Amino acid sequence: MVGSVPLSVHFDVTYRCNERCVHCYLDHEDYGELETTEIKNILIQLAASGTLMLTFSGGEIFLREDFFELLEFAKDLHFDIALKSNALMITAARAARLRALGVRQVQVSVYSADPEIHDAITKVRGSFARSLKAIRFLKSQGLRVKIACPLMKQNLAGLRQLRALADELGISYVIDMTITPKLDGDTSVLALRNSAEDLLGVMQDPTLQGKAVLDDGSESGVGSAVSSGMEGDAYDGIPCSAGHNTCYISPYGDVYPCVQMPVAAGNLRTEKFDEIWRRSPQFERVRAIRDSDLPVCAKCSIRKYCERCPGLAQMEGGDLLGAYERACELAEMKARVAGVANPVSAWHAQNDGKILSPATLSSLVQIASL
Amino acid sequence: MSSETITLNPQLAWREIEGRVVVISPADSVVHELNETATFIWKQAESGRSVAEIADLLSLEFCVEPTQARSDTEELLRMLLQKGLVTS
């Protein structure tokens, strides 16, 4: 892997949305989004810094009236473009235009094969039918489409049917077991998470744990719906690609190592991207972290079963280097599925069982008071 | 092939990163990383030079015999054509 080049950038161009998903981590008000010229200027800077893979996301990207203008601009700069959308606003004509603009993949949020459940999650009646119609438009244009489905209490039971739907549509899917706190720190949405015990069936399913590859090269399985797709063996010894080869830009120009690591390193309205990327203390700190630096997790005997996310460690446990309850629970469950007898994470062992960090405890108090 | 002009596939995503061109084809999402000479040829093709012109420049840049440069250029471009990364 090349040195610290921002190969992949996740750019949320709006937080506005035409759905109101129950698990969403965003505030959908517009507090002054970047204007068209500002975004174009940022894209020029990203290209100059070496960014190749660009993911436009939101909010709902098609709510920006200038979105196709931005896409055309990005295409002229030779980005590899992927989109994340609920697809409600994708018509046949728009699908054709996306194809002409060389968009490589469109990831569409679909929460269930049952329209009632999907619509209850999005809080928009008829959204399931509209998203499915749009997926068919995209497929008919030969575009690569992927379903993204965060698992929560409402849709876990219908997972088999969702996978069957993806198969019927001839598209891949990513099943995400992560529900994240809101970016403002509100953890109330975590009450929607399935328990580790409830996810046992998902973890025991070999067809979900592997990566099934479709003819178009796309992969299906359990993973991250927000990932840059750059995790893996290339980052041996480093917690993840955040800040190394990937970063996140908000609709207000804030730059973070990752959407799940809300540590603002600078703002593109006042600073140049390259300055933030190369010189901000926040990026330097993230880049300096090695797995071996993690005071608890580095000595964990079930570390290989753990999908610890540094950003979630910060948001849920209050410490970028620390352990957090959810990662430990899932790692113990995965280790159990793999045949490890009585697996206990280093954090749980250290605390003689499940003693929660102050931050986690505070979040649970919030949940209990709802 | 020598008088032909090669055009980069406009649907491609590509970037020069640390002196090497990296190309992604949206058709199959395959990532191609070009070596130093292939990067040189790619950039000349981008600027609209003919195959013969590219070979001459390659010969000068890398101090190789013109016949060798011509052969290497044509071989690479044939490969890129087969993969759909360029058009003639």
Summarize the entry for a quick read.
The complex is a heterodimer of chains A (370) and B (88). Helix content of chain A is 34%, strand content 13%. Chain A is built from 14 helices and eleven strands.
Task: Report what the structure shows.
The complex is a heterodimer of chains A (370) and B (88). Chain A starts with 7 loop residues before the first strand and ends with a helix. The model of chain A is unreliable at 355-370 (pLDDT under 50). Helix content of chain A is 34%, strand content 13%. Chain A has an 11-stranded mixed β-sheet. In chain A, helix 1 (36-49) runs parallel beside helix 2 (67-76). By secondary structure, chain A is of the alpha/beta class. Chain B is α+β, with helices and mostly antiparallel strands and 88 residues long. Chain B contains 3 helices and 5 strands. A 3-stranded antiparallel β-sheet of chain B has the order 2-3-4, covered by helices on one side. A two-stranded antiparallel sheet of chain B has the order 1-5. In chain B, helix 1 crosses helix 2 (51-62) and helix 2 (51-62) crosses helix 3. The model of chain B has no long low-confidence stretch (mean pLDDT 90). The chains are: A alpha/beta (370), B alpha+beta (88). Chain A binds chain B through residues 2-3, 5, 7, 47, 50-53, 78-81, 102-105, 144, 216-218, and chain B through 10-15, 17-18, 22, 24, 26, 28-30.
Oligomer: heterodimer
Number of strands of chain A: 11
CATH architecture of chain B: Orthogonal Bundle
Biggest pleated-sheet summary of chain B? 3 strands, antiparallel
Q: Mean pLDDT score of chain A, rounded? A: 89
Kindly provide the name of the CATH class of chain B: Mainly Alpha
With strands numbered from the N-terminus, the spatial order across the biggest sheet of chain A is 7-8-6-5-4-3-2-1-9-10-11
Radius of gyration of chain A: 20 Å
Low-confidence stretches of chain B: none
- Please trace the helix and strand order of chain A, writing H or E for each element: EHEHEHEHHEHEHHEEEEEHHHHHH
Radius of gyration from the alpha-carbon trace of chain B, in angstroms: 12 Å
The total count of strands of chain B amounts to 5
Amino-to-carboxy terminus distance of chain A: 46 Å
Shape of chain A: globular
Number of domains of chain B: 1
Enter the CATH topology name of chain B: Arc Repressor Mutant, subunit A
